[in-house]
């Protein structure tokens, strides 16, 4: 009588699966879950780095109500997010539409345009950006040749934040590539049929392209919104960590860094971090709730 191989009952994961998942479990618990629980506890304490935490309840959160720097950082971050993100997505979509029209050497253009997204968060690019808009930088020099005296943008409270917005828009490569992939999935038959019916380019864009591309727009919007709320490197380098001039580049993350690693107020910094977490969660949830009114799926 032949032996039959023992088969594992369906629905029961093998031990090998747990072995391969073990590094992920260790990471999610040790690197994410435990630090989050610890920071949540510290947000209700008065804790200076190197000292002993003492419970103070919601005093750290109440302190934010009268903290002028907290208000300034929140306003600067809100302006940065709600101005630069739409501009970046519009610019990325415009470039994707151009590349989608059958440009020669598309892989080369795609790589070149994607490169700023890889470098945009680096210290080197932030230093370069600071030099471009300094008093003797390339941008003021070129403007001077056309008779425009603009001076140093990074030392002007009215324009310092604009330089960081331009930097964010410049890193349009990642959403552009995603937009381009979405445009390639739109059936050309629909666009050709609309053209035969007399619809112009603008009408075809808003009636066909945008609705079919809405899931991709939604995806890019959520990702860029979260990333912009967490922007830090550019503001830190351009302002030399001060958030100046006149708090014009005091991003929320930069103020959190100052509280935690310059003033060593880890309890207050933890509270600031949890407020940022709540704000990002709120706007992400708001996007998902509102998506049912403008995002259209094929099903």
Describe the structure.
With 299 residues, this protein is mainly alpha-helical. It has one domain: MetI-like fold (Orthogonal Bundle), CATH 1.10.3720.10. 69% of the residues lie in helices and 1% in strands. Helix 3 packs parallel to helix 7 and helix 4 packs antiparallel against helix 8. The longest helix has 32 residues, at 68-99. The chain is globular, with a radius of gyration of 25 Å.
| C-alpha-based Rg, rounded | 25 Å
Largest sheet: 2 strands, antiparallel
CATH domain fold name: MetI-like fold
| CATH homologous superfamily heading | MetI-like
The residue fraction in helices comes out at 55-70%
CATH class reads Mainly Alpha
Tell me the number of helical segments per DSSP (H or I, 4 or more residues long).
13
CATH architecture: Orthogonal Bundle
Distance between the termini: 53 Å
Sketch the topology as an H/E string, one letter per element. HEEHHHHHHHHHHHH
What topology, given as strand order, has the largest sheet?
1-2
Q: Please count the beta strands (DSSP E, at least 2 residues each).
A: 2
What is the structural class?
mainly alpha
Shape by Cα distribution: globular
Low-pLDDT segments: none
Mean pLDDT: 88
Tell me the domain tally. Answer: 1
Features:
299 residues; mainly alpha; 69% helix
Write the layout of secondary structure elements.
Layout: H1 15-42, E1 45-46, E2 54-55, H2 59-66, H3 68-99, H4 106-119, H5 123-132, H6 138-145, H7 160-170, H8 173-184, H9 188-196, H10 201-229, H11 233-238, H12 252-262, H13 266-294
Antiparallel strand pairs: 1-2
Describe what is shown at a glance.
With 299 residues, this protein is an all-alpha fold.
């Amino acid at each position: 009588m032949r032996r039959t191989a023992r088969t594992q009952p369906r629905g029961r994961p093998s031990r090998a699966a747990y072995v391969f998942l073990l590094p992920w479990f260790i990471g999610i618990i040790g690197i994410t879950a435990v630090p989050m629980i610890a920071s949540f506890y510290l947000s209700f304490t008065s804790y200076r780095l190197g000292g002993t935490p003492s419970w103070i309840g919601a005093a750290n959160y109440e302190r934010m109500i009268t903290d002028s720097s907290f208000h300034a950082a929140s306003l600067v971050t809100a302006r940065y997010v709600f101005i630069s993100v739409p501009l970046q997505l519009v610019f990325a979509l415009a470039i994707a539409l151009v590349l989608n029209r059958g440009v020669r050497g598309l892989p080369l253009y795609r790589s070149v345009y994607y490169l700023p997204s890889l470098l945009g968060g680096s210290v080197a690019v932030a230093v370069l950006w600071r030099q471009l808009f300094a008093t003797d930088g390339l941008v003021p020099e070129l403007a001077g040749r056309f008779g425009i005296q603009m001076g140093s943008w990074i030392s002007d409270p009215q324009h310092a934040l604009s330089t960081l917005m331009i930097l964010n828009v410049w890193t349009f490569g990642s959403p552009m590539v995603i937009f381009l992939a979405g445009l390639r999935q739109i059936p050309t038959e629909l666009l050709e049929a609309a053209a035969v019916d007399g619809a112009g380019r603008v009408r075809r864009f808003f009636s066909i392209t945008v609705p079919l591309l809405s899931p991709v727009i939604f995806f890019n919007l959520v990702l860029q919104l979260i990333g912009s709320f967490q922007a830090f490197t550019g503001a830190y380098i351009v302002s030399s960590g001060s958030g100046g001039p006149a708090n014009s580049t005091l991003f929320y993350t930069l103020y959190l860094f100052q509280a935690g690693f310059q003033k060593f107020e880890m309890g207050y910094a933890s509270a600031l971090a949890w407020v940022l977490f709540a704000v990002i969660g709120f706007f992400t949830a708001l996007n998902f709730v509102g998506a049912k009114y403008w995002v259209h799926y094929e099903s």
